[in-house]
Amino acid sequence: MTAPILATARERVLSDGVGLGEAQLLEVLTLADDDVPDLLALAHDVRLRWCGPEVEVEGIVSVKTGGCPEDCHFCSQSGLFQSPVRGAWLDVPSLVKAAVETAATGASEFCIVAAVRGPDDRLMSQLREGVAAIKAAVDINVAASLGMLTQLQVDELAAIGVHRYNHNLETARSYFPQVVTTHTWEERWDTLTMVRDAGMEVCCGGIVGMGESLAQRAEFAGQLAELEPDEVPLNFLNPRPGTPFGDLPVMDGKDALRTVAAFRLALPRTILRYAGGREVTLGDLGTRAGMLGGINAVIVGNYLTTLGRDPQEDLDLLASLSMPVKELSKSL
Ligand code: SF4
Fold first, then answer.
1. Shortest CA distance to 131 belongs to which of 179, 184, 200?
2. Residue among 60, 65, 72 to mutate when testing ligand 1 (max atoms within 8 A of CB)
3. Closest atom of ligand 1 to CA, residue 71
4. Whose CA is nearest to atom 4 of ligand 1?
5. Torsion sign (Cα): 243, 246, 247, 248
6. Contact of 118 with 187, CB cutoff 8 Å
7. C or N terminus of the chain, fewer CB within 10 Å?
């Protein structure tokens, strides 16, 4: 017999395009293992109905790695923990090279990331130069992820043609103080609001499997839905040695798939992207199941601090699932 929440979701999300609320998402996250195949099939139908069959491919590059003053407990780029990531800067020619290589995979998105609380003048000028050089060299959408912004910085990024800005809320508001103590969830929310008001696309997601309860996972999905981001990158904790969360267990694969589907049922129209941690959490079979359970975007290449897969493996996976890669012209 079909679980009642699946019948509800079929009508509300699949037919009407309205995301589930927090209480309903909790029901989804607590579905029995036997119901997971039906749940994934429904989430896949929702994705096809409201987003279409295309998959958005994105490459990311780190312009400034490590040595961040913040204390996000999952992050090996914090300078406050004994984690092995060293501080490093990338110059403009290297940024352009990475953008050209990303475009060659067929990706439509290239995101420049920096491990900082927020950008200083040096980083902003690097961005200005880098974005101009990339735009002169290759046809690709440029996104950025530089931490918390001031209004002036938001305006400048919009003016130089950054079309999407990533800033993750990371987790539910109620759990955030257990994850970060050097800034607040509300500070992150403020940056996201400014970004949206400036006309840039909003990319905002987080990490699951950090010790949050299922109710908090549902809360987080509901809070993301309230923000209405254009894209949600979904990471699964990959516990990094030397970080406060380094000893947490890897999330159970079925829980990860329930989470993928729940996020799709909360956000029927968003770009839901597999980001970090999927290899250790889901393996190849689980990754495939998630692509058929609501995911419609992937990151190719590295995940900043841990090696992702060879881009060709992901492109082969999409081909084997007969999922077309979204082209640049369609995403402008
Ligand atoms: S997640 Fe970002 S802000 Fe937090 S420590 Fe890592 S690089 Fe710094």
1. 200
2. 72
3. 5
4. 72
5. positive
6. no
7. N
Distance of CA 154 to the CA centre of its chain: 20
The angle that helices 311-320 and 278-291 make with each other, rounded to 10 degrees, is 20
Q: In testing the pocket of ligand 1, which one of 60, 65, 68 has its CB within 8 Å of the most ligand atoms? A: 68
Residue 13: closest CA among 207, 252, 268, 248: 268
CA of 117 to the centre of ligand 1 (A): 7
- Token digits of residue 134: 């990339």
Residues 208-243 have pLDDT tens digits of 999 999 999 999 999 999 999 999 999 999 999 999
Tokens of 88: 């490093």
Per residue in 50-86, pLDDT (tens digit) is: 999 999 999 988 888 888 999 999 999 898 988 666 6
What letter does residue 63 receive in the DSSP assignment? Answer: E
SS3 56: strand
